[in-house]
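During the reporting period, we have paired protein sequences with backbone structure tokens. One record among many follows, to show the layout:
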Amino acid sequence: MNSHLTNHRKAAAAVLVTVAIFASVLPARVSAGQSGDVTFSKIKVLQTDGGDFKTRDASLTFSENELLIKVPKGNDIAMEYDKIVSAEYSYSKHPRWKTGLELGAAGILFPPLWLVALPLGFTKHRKHWLTVRTEKEFAVIKLRKGNRKLLIPTFETRTGVNVVAVGEDK
């Protein structure tokens, strides 16, 4: 009977340690506002800066009706959920688009979009990318390994848009 109690204590201790770890890590990545907003604070977004593309620190907030990317040293991006037409996830050296050479067609609609692939083509390591599009604009978001597993389902739930995985999914 002693070993039975010891096993329960070990299991309870394991649960407490797991909860403590998640409680200390999760608030740094995700926070819920009083109005039901959900914010992911450790993301990056690609933005133009005088003709060059820069990866900027940002936070992504899912509010009641829109996706808001706050960029302290750049331009904020707001996309209403009902205006979002597609979203793609890739695990690659650079963001991918649905058909690979869709860049030509996208360049007509979004002239700077095809330029994103040029500077990113020289990176050596694969990254987690989420590209979100409306009819008139787009956002290229670099996710962290730890936040993508929460961010993508939150995106799909809030926007009603399925995220299409392009290339290798990790």
